[in-house]
């Protein structure tokens, strides 16, 4: 079967940064599903993995990809959540071979039924970013819709893949949403997603919030450089608020900056559950089901902005190039195997 991968970590401009490989079709065992992949999307984590350890060679082709939508071909003997022919979407695991292959093995506990009202491409755009946003807000910070109605949240990098869906989920939960963007087109995108106010993350954040009538915010979702915005977040968060970030930092964070306000800080990493095989790993199956309902109801909408075809090495290079540019809005999807 066909797969897109690489044997050497190279800049995306290099011819061999991605190649087409012919690999053996896997067989599902245990709780695994064998999915015939119809569409995949590219996330910043894909570009980071490919770009890491530049020049290093791998013994076997490295197959990237997390987001996927497709059709179940077969299931392992312990799988019970789906049947052959079911259409699904998922973000998979960072501990296994990726979804950039015609047939892919994935644990059923991190798979959801595909939203009926979305196309395959739209479905493939959503799992990683939507799970990340959902877990950050509801599993990590602990926001409860209705109870927290009227609370305020600052979404740093609102036009990115995670920010785009976080804005929508926050509005669904009844929050007052302030998002950050720095360009005219990204500001418009945040407003389209439902942000009540958009401010510039290259300008002092607290002053902009105050000018807009806020004395601070109850929650902060950091989907960009954590260390760069640390001081601003400490200034903007209200007493007894909470900050959740998804972006790692090589610089120490001064957690004592949050002490006087009794502010909670937490990380969100959507691969934690599958990576450590946690007892609540099936929670991602449940989350994807809840998100599918919200998509089908039209409460939230997909953030797909560009679809590339066919699914081959050259188009994968183009998708990585666009994501690495830092100017991509929403999600980029590839579909239809060559």
Q: What is the N-to-C order of secondary-structure elements (H for helix, E for strand)? A: EEEHEEEEEHHEHEHEHEHEEHHEHE
Structural class: alpha/beta
Distance linking N and C termini: 12 Å
Rg computed from alpha carbons, rounded to a whole number of angstroms = 20 Å
Question: Outline of this structure?
Answer:
With 338 residues, the protein is an alpha/beta fold.
Walkthrough of the structure:
With 338 residues, the chain is α/β, with parallel strands linked by helices. It folds into 2 domains: 2-126 and 272-335, Quinone Oxidoreductase, Chain A, domain 1; 129-267, 3-Layer(aba) Sandwich (Rossmann fold). The protein has 10 helices and 16 strands. The chain has helices at 44-51, 120-124, 127-141, 161-172, 184-193, 205-211, 230-236, 272-276, 283-297, 313-324; strands at residues 2-8, 19-22, 32-42, 57-63, 68-75, 87-90, 103-107, 111-113, 152-156, 176-180, 197-199, 217-222, 237-245, 264-267, 304-308, 331-335. Strands 3, 5, 6, 7, 8, 15 and 16 form a 7-stranded mixed sheet that branches. The model has no long low-confidence stretch (mean pLDDT 96).
Features:
zinc; NADP; 27% strand; Zinc-ADH_QOR/CCCR; six-stranded parallel sheet; single chain; seven-stranded mixed sheet; Rossmann fold; 338 residues; Quinone Oxidoreductase, Chain A, domain 1; 2 domains; alpha/beta; Zinc-type alcohol dehydrogenase-like protein
